[in-house]
Design a protein that fits this description.
alpha/beta, FAD/NAD(P)-binding domain, seven-stranded mixed β-sheet, 24 strands
């Protein structure tokens, strides 16, 4: 049996950062296990790679159970199955969250996680190519940059915000996110290529003899002896392998970190027994408190040929490819989205609870294909940033290769329905601004006749989408339902921690890639401190 000082399970946003920092000391023997493949797929590096990789071989392709708040819809729940994890297939948006998110974590029983505590780790992680500021990092492995594609249509979105009385901010990652802004991305500085956590951290550590990175390794169970984790078992190329470690850190994400705990007999005794798993350590909060950002959209026809629909023309498409590869700019160098806003659904909210994204492309909603629509249009989308609805991750069976059972319970809390409906109202107000007069055509979705709250609610239930930010299922805290303590140690067990988005007591008010990387950075210091 091989022995390591540290074994990190999952080479995703947090796991790559964690393995990199733990292996900085040459005396630490570190093993990083990833169930997916190496990140050789060239589509990963493309800024529009999300549209080309989700649903493919580097996606776990999870699906939720029928969602009761969405009239029984089953939702896709993609997660990256590759080095870099979901940072290899996401939209690359770099959003730290509001400073109030982290100050709230502290009040929820997580000392050491206030904004002042986590800011140094955000700075440590990044190399920011924009205007310098004391809150931004310049020496970290993760490259961050403003989007490289601006058009009058994007500018109209920002002007519409100013017209409606909102602020336009230079940098939403300085603590207070509120207002309209140009988007920031995790991309290389010198060329328009994705900078996943694997690209940022693992390439920098490639020459370290004390860091072993193995792909195609699906962990099946943790090895427990009394109240201590002593290692784990995993399957690679059909063979069962076992390793021992002084400490195991789960960074498998909000779906699979709790799944691994439960497969190992850590969780709610009754729930484990119902799936044929003997309870080894009682911890009823495992898999509970699951959260995600979700929201809807409005779509309009565009009176000018400035949307991505123009790239159906082969000549224009070749021009966009040329712009990307030769000039490192243009429509293929961003998500496709390059303007956003963080707003309050109601003035009484303590901080923004809605994120708006402007897409100069429409989706085929009425046809139900989920692909880009066959008309020249644009979309204003939004997401509920502080949902009150809570879901859970549970086991399908004791089979370690079975997918976890995922139930998000989207829109089951009336407050979320109210906030989501407010999102549609604000989106329509923005679209009705003078700034959009030259562009705005017919509102295709939901359509001008959708005005009553019942009709709006029904439309939202039918069209709402996940922003793919699952969090909270191994909640950090100090109470009996917390899974990990503020040092990320699994409560009641030695030699075992969790470090990924699952530890968030409440999901941050924005995209979760940047906070997940921060968690990996901070976790390394916590682990090394003992």
């Amino acid at each position: 049996m091989e022995t390591f000082d540290f074994v990190v399970v999952g080479a995703g946003s947090a796991g790559c950062a964690l393995a990199y920092r733990l292996s900085t000391d040459a005396n630490n023997r570190v093993l990083l296990l990833e169930a997916g493949a190496r990140d050789w797929n060239p589509l990963i590096r493309l800024p529009v790679g999300e549209a080309l990789t989700i649903g493919g071989s580097i996606d776990w392709k999870f699906r939720t159970e029928p969602e009761p708040g969405l009239d029984g819809r089953v939702m896709e729940a993609p997660r990256g199955k590759v080095l870099g994890g979901s940072s290899a297939i996401n939209g690359q948006l770099y959003v730290r969250g509001h400073q109030g998110d982290f100050d709230e974590w502290k009040t929820l029983g997580c000392p050491g996680w206030a904004y002042k505590d986590v800011l140094p780790y955000f700075r440590k992680a990044e190399s920011w190519a924009g205007e310098p500021d004391q809150t931004r990092g310049t020496m970290g492995p993760l490259k961050t940059i403003l989007g490289r594609y601006r058009t009058p249509l994007y500018e109209a979105f920002l002007k519409a915000g100013a017209e409606q009385g909102y602020s336009v901010v230079e940098d939403y990652n300085r603590g207070d996110t509120e207002g309209f802004a140009w988007a920031q991305f995790t991309q290389e500085h010198d060329r328009a290529r994705r900078c996943s956590s694997a690209h940022a951290y693992l390439r920098a550590a490639a020459g370290r003899a004390n860091l072993t990175v193995r792909t195609g390794c699906q962990v099946t169970a943790l090895s427990l002896s009394a109240n201590k984790c002593t290692g784990l078992t995993y399957i690679q190329q059909g063979k069962m392998q076992a390793v021992s470690a002084a400490e195991v850190i789960l960074s498998a994400g909000a779906y699979q970190s709790p799944q691994l705990l439960m497969l190992s007999g850590i969780g709610d005794p009754a729930a484990l027994r119902s799936r044929g798993v003997a309870c080894r350590h009682q911890l009823p909060g495992v898999g509970q408190n699951l959260q995600d950002h979700c929201g809807g959209l409005i779509q309009s026809r565009c009176n000018e040929k400035m949307t991505y629909h123009q790239f159906r023309n082969p000549i224009r498409a070749l021009g966009a490819v040329w712009d990307l590869y030769v000039n490192a700019r243009g429509p293929l160098s961003v998500f496709p989205m390059n303007a956003l806003a963080f707003l309050r659904s109601d003035p009484s909210e303590p901080r923004p609870d809605l994120e708006f994204l402007f897409f100069p492309v429409a989706t085929d909603i009425q046809g139900g294909s989920g692909r880009y629509a066959a008309f020249n249009g644009y979309a204003i989308t939004w997401g509920i940033m502080r949902p009150r609805s809570r879901g859970a991750v549970t086991l399908a069976s004791s089979d370690p290769l079975a997918k976890p059972v995922i139930q998000h319970n989207y829109l089951t809390d009336p407050h979320d329905v109210k906030v989501n409906n407010a999102g549609l109202k604000i989106a329509r107000e923005l679209n009705g601004s003078r700034a959009f007069d030259r562009f705005r055509g017919e509102e295709v979705d939901p359509g001008a006749d959708c005005t009553s709250q019942d009709a709006i609610s029904a439309y939202n239930r039918r069209t709402i989408g996940s922003h793919f930010h699952p969090s909270g299922s191994c909640r950090m805290g100090s109470d009996d339902l917390a899974v990990v303590d503020p040092a990320l140690r699994v409560r009641g067990l030695k030699g075992l921690r969790v470090a990924d988005a699952s530890i968030m007591p409440r999901v941050t008010s924005g995209n979760t890639n940047a906070p997940s990387i921060m968690i990996g950075e901070k976790a390394a210091d916590l682990v090394l401190a003992g």
